[in-house]
Design brief:
Order of helices and strands: EHEEHHHHH
Shape: elongated
Oligomer: single chain
Radius of gyration: 35 Å
Largest sheet: 3 strands, antiparallel
Distance between the termini: 82 Å
Number of strands: 3
Structural class: alpha+beta
Helix content: 40-55%
Length: 226
């Protein structure tokens, strides 16, 4: 539920795949399918992907980093952008070389989604320069790190308060949703009990009516002798 919807790019027919336009589609050998990959222009990037479920639970945008690959074929205006995992067999070596030069970023709420920083792009740039990319990282800075930022203690306290507030609001919303579901279940149960009781009363009434119309048994002294 937390993962992005995925699409298997291998299911695209070759004639509709822009990466195959520079390769022979008729008479080519299966082993030659990727023979001209060296002519492709391949780039990588880490993008912040929003996770709706975790964002709903936390009451604020929660993003996670995902490495994406962009592939462009010479002579084509089209390009393919997809998660790297789909192309590890073809471009794994290039990806690992690129990844070795990248800094691993933390998951969390990007600084750009923190309301207090909406109108402070220069402060966001300063924080990123200090390798602070999420509100969670800002809220958990050490005292030493706070001293390197102008107004660092107050800024970190604001971030912590905001995280706690959004979490509390999300928890209240979740509790209210749970109460609503419980109330609906109780109503359904009450309706089911009422229906069952009504059915039982109907069966009892029919049985009593049947007993009332049955002929009474004659007294013993009027019954014929054996």
């Amino acid at each position: 539920m937390n993962d992005m919807p995925t699409f298997d790019v291998s299911s695209i027919p070759a004639e509709f795949n822009p990466l195959m336009q520079h390769q022979p589609l008729d008479g080519g050998q299966a082993g030659d399918a990727y023979a001209q990959d060296s002519k492709l222009f391949v780039t990588f990037a880490t993008v912040a992907v929003l996770h709706p479920y975790e964002s709903t639970m936390a009451g604020r945008p929660i993003c996670k980093d995902q490495d994406m690959i962009t592939i462009r074929a010479p002579g084509s205006r089209d390009s393919i952008v997809a998660p790297v995992k789909y192309y590890m067999d073809r471009f794994g070596e290039k990806y690992r070389a690129w990844k070795s030069t990248q800094m691993q970023a933390a998951d969390g709420t990007p600084l750009e989604n923190y309301p207090f920083l909406f109108t402070k792009p220069s402060l966001i740039a300063e924080l990123k320069y200090r390798n602070i990319f999420t509100v969670e990282q800002l809220a958990s800075l050490s005292d030493t790190a706070k001293q390197t930022i102008m107004g660092g203690h107050e800024l970190c306290k604001r971030a912590l308060d905001w995280l706690e507030q959004t979490s509390a609001v999300a928890m209240d919303v979740e509790k209210e949703e749970m109460r609503r579901k419980m109330a609906a279940m109780e109503e359904q149960l009450a309706a089911l009990v009422a229906l069952t009781q009504s059915a039982n009363k109907g069966s009892k009434s029919k049985a009593e009516a049947k007993g009332a119309t049955a002929p009474a048994e004659a007294p013993a002294f009027l019954q014929p002798a054996a």
